[in-house]
């Protein structure tokens, strides 16, 4: 993803930091990089406290440079990092309080009220696709391991290209292999992930089945929250058993 994805939506916004533009102008500036964004999605993010546009006397929203930068930041992290809105909101709220949180999950940082070039580079790295050879090189793993991970269903390619999630799986499996745990031993993880996904899909099915964008956005965010809770539960159960090994 080139640095141009951080363009502001119009000269009306860039010309004066305090100037405001309509939601239609914001959409025209965002749709090239976020084709599925809509007015309903932006209003949903406002409802969740991610942005707070000004209002005219007639009640129309007006978006400033800061609002647009926050929108791009939130949309980028949702798309490329799959972070829950709560995690993103906690971070930008800390920035607004004058704090300096070191990083978001994944190591991204954000300067106060500015979407940085570093963010562009990091998001670009996370959204790229890789060949099997590149994936092996990035993970520091032999190509044989990548082939085994594909064979046992732990990673999969789309048109022979792998994403950043495959890289995370490869790195974790390489480290597990050092403990004698091979890909063939890890097939239950794939089955467990599929069962968890089914559980999440059933939980959000009523909202996901609606056609309006706001409902779909809520369903996606709820799915992220449920998956995070499932991961917390899994970690607590495993760590609880391990803790008893010392007792």
Which keywords apply here?
single chain; 247 residues; mainly alpha; Multidrug-efflux Transporter Regulator, Chain: A, Domain 2; 3 domains; two-stranded antiparallel sheet; 11 helices; disordered N terminus; DNA-binding; DNA-bd_dom_put_sf; MerR-type_HTH_dom; DNA binding; DNA-binding transcription factor activity
What does it look like?
This protein folds into three domains: 3-127, Multidrug-efflux Transporter Regulator, Chain: A, Domain 2 (Orthogonal Bundle), CATH 1.10.1660; 129-181, no CATH class; 188-247, no CATH class. Helices cover 59% and strands 2% of the residues. It contains eleven helices and two strands; from the N terminus they run αααββαααααααα. The protein has a two-stranded antiparallel ribbon with strand order 1-2. Strand 1 (54-55) and strand 2 (61-62) form a beta hairpin. Helix 3 packs across helix 11 (213-243) and helix 7 (132-139) crosses helix 9. The N and C termini lie far apart (51 Å).
Spatial extent as radius of gyration: 21 Å
Count of spatially separate domains: 3
| Through-space gap between termini | 51 Å
Supply the number of helical segments.
11
């Amino acid at each position: 993803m080139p640095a141009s994805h951080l363009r502001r939506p119009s000269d009306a916004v860039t010309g004066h930091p305090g100037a405001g533009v309509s939601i239609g102008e914001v959409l025209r500036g965002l749709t090239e990089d976020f084709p599925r964004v809509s007015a309903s999605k932006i209003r949903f993010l406002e409802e969740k406290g991610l942005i707070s546009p000004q209002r005219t006397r007639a009640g129309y929203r007006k978006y400033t440079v800061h609002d647009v930068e926050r929108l791009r930041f939130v949309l980028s992290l949702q798309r490329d990092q799959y972070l829950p809105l709560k995690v993103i909101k906690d971070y930008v709220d800390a920035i607004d309080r004058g704090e300096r949180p070191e990083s978001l999950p994944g190591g991204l940082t954000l300067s106060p009220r500015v979407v940085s070039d570093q963010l562009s580079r990091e998001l670009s790295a996370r959204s790229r696709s890789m060949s099997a050879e590149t994936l092996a090189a990035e993970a520091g793993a032999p190509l044989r391991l990548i082939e085994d991970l594909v064979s046992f269903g732990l990673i999969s390619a789309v048109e022979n290209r792998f994403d950043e999630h495959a890289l995370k799986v490869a790195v974790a499996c390489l480290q597990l292999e050092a403990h004698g745990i091979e890909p063939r031993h890890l097939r239950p993880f794939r089955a467990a992930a599929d069962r968890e996904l089914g559980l999440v899909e059933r939980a959000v099915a009523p909202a996901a089945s609606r056609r309006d964008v706001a409902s779909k956005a809520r369903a996606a965010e709820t799915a992220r929250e449920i998956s995070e809770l499932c991961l917390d539960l899994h970690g607590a159960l495993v760590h609880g058993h391990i803790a008893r090994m010392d007792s």
